[in-house]
Amino acid sequence: MKRVYFLLVFSAIGMNTYAQKTIDQKVTELLSKMTLEEKVGQMVQYSGFEYATGPQQSNSAAVLEEIKKGKVGSMLNVAGSGETKAFQKLAMQSRLKIPLLFGQDVIHGYRTTFPVNLGQAASWDLDMIEKSERIAATEASAYGIHWTFAPMVDIARDPRWGRVMEGSGEDTYLGTKIGLARIKGFQGKGLGSLDAVMACAKHFAAYGAAVGGRDYNAVDMSLRQLHETYLPPFKAAAEAGVATFMNSFNDINGIPATAHQYIQRNLLKGSWNYKGFVVSDWGSIGEMIPHGYAKDGGEAAEKAILGGSDMDMESRVYMTELPKLVKEGTVDIKLVDDAAGRILTKKFEMGLFDDPYRFSNEKRQKEQTDNKKNREFGREFGSKSIVLLKNQQHILPLSKSVKTVALIGPFGKETVANHGFWSIAFKDDTQRIVSQFDGIRNQLDKNSTLLYAKGCNVDDQDRSMFAEAVETAKKADVVIMTLGEGHAMSGEAKSRSNIGFSGVQEDLLKEIAKTGKPVILMINAGRPLIFNWASDHIPAIMYTWWLGTEAGNSIADILFGTMNPSGKLPMSFPRTEGQIPVYYNHYNTGRPAKNNTDRNYVSAYIDLDNDPKYPFGYGLSYTDFQYSDMVLSSASLTGNETLNISVTVSNTGKYDGEEVIQLYIRDLFGKVVRPVKELKGFQKVFIKKGENKQVHFRLTPEDLKFFDDTLNFDWEGGEFDIMVGTSSQNVQTKRINWVK
Ligand code: BGC
Question: Is CATH 3.40.50.1700 what the domain over 370-579 is classified as, yes or no?
């Protein structure tokens, strides 16, 4: 039996190596037939003629001709079974008939859109996140797409940076887990399956740390910080077999990421042994000229390829400059062979050499358009992403038989906005999107009335609609206000210096509150906003992000208690912009503030509390959860032992519900200072009302490792605080000693 098993395992390994060798051999063979221009052609990516996020080549006819000549390896923003087939046919006219790769930003859903990514992260539900990407991949691949530019695994601690909406928030551990779930979802059973798309870990690296939260800005940080906070999600992605990487617009310590030999050559393709390929960000190779890092296109191309960029997205310098550079001996042909080889390998793995049209299938496309099951999933996922921030006197959930409800605010009847930024697959079919008004109307009793008033626009100073809104509120028993920031106010190039409600929305809220009617506030946003007045005066607040196709239904499910809120914040919410960056896993400093009142010569602002308005990991439920009986398997451990931690969580409230139980540690003393808390585990657990569950975690020395000042990654013996709780601010603590 054992022998048979070994034989099977052995031959399986043998087969894999053989299969891999076959692709390697095919790539080598193909490369040997290719001219220099054809090889460089594989390294060129152009955009189709929509959705530009940067300067674009306008001469579309010339691009079509270049495809026929084998001078283009990939197109982005070409989608649809018909369109992709048409482009692929052009590539099939080229001398060696090398198929094109079609890439697109499938960021939070495709035809069916899901909550913006930061909202998804608030679900802390890895299974649902993975499933959402499975659906996105199934829909996108049915539209002929081979490759998504996702997941964005940039850690971000600055909510002024608009792209926080596309990531998983401030924490490296949570961000890594979510990134892995997304890659698994996108790549499904593996490249080559018809419903899988290649994933892309972006933006390599540290894009989220742009100075001042201003998009595309410089990044300056220690290598230790880079390794400890920003690189782990990328390393995990590489280890998990993510098909591609995209580098980032920013420089890191003075060197543009696009040409950063240390991160792309030494780490990614060196010690991490990554075999996929790296695409530049849009135009980022050419942008090394304004960066002041390359004097012209030639130098930009040279530095980019030396720095490990394999594919040039839309800056055109590879095609125009690389052949010359190779011929004159400035760039070694081996670098071109390596880059083109990596790209061709993926095309083989995707099965495109067997059938270049295999993803362009009209029947599949039809099945994946407005797919009912996918929408049902989206509805549930939307509800699970909502975070309940405040619920005084249990004003929520609402009864469906409230006689008159008023929905007030600029987002009440929005349709397209609900998709959020980075939703590009549906264009004009707005009727498929459930507005908040429709979602609420669908669930209110037939005899109840739902009134609506817009009250104001999202982002101007016009108060002319206030009076009507106030009159509408006066007629209602309950007012639901829907405020926030416009859906296109977060996302790429959407940095904001003032992250309050835009326009006159807060003034509208104050006017409505004066009516004395109970007000429930729903906040629509792609980032943490600052809304202190609302927090202090409005009895119920839920953070609804941008929830996607089924937004209105997801919201109504929470409002009326069909679903119990279970989201928790993946980013700290600041009290003012002046407090940014505020994040839970900061250092203690030599003069920590003990409380919010003692501000004398301690690390504090003289005019502001140190803690955020709402902390990382925070979120309420309609029910109550009590934590008790935190038990550790031992208070003193040695070497490679395992620490088992258990805690009992009881649902003592009136509703069944889910709770995200969080495990943090603090390494009290180290050869470099350690954060006051570090997330090391979490579990989302469903507990029926009146019941309790025992939840278990385990820690090993692997979880205690950190980078020291020489970038050595190891753990140290000593004292540790072990903390379990319902948010980063509300934990129980036990101390242990762990000897190395
Ligand atoms: C963004 C990338 C995106 C690319 C293609 C760039 O501007 O930074 O994240 O994938 O455009 O649309």
Answer: yes
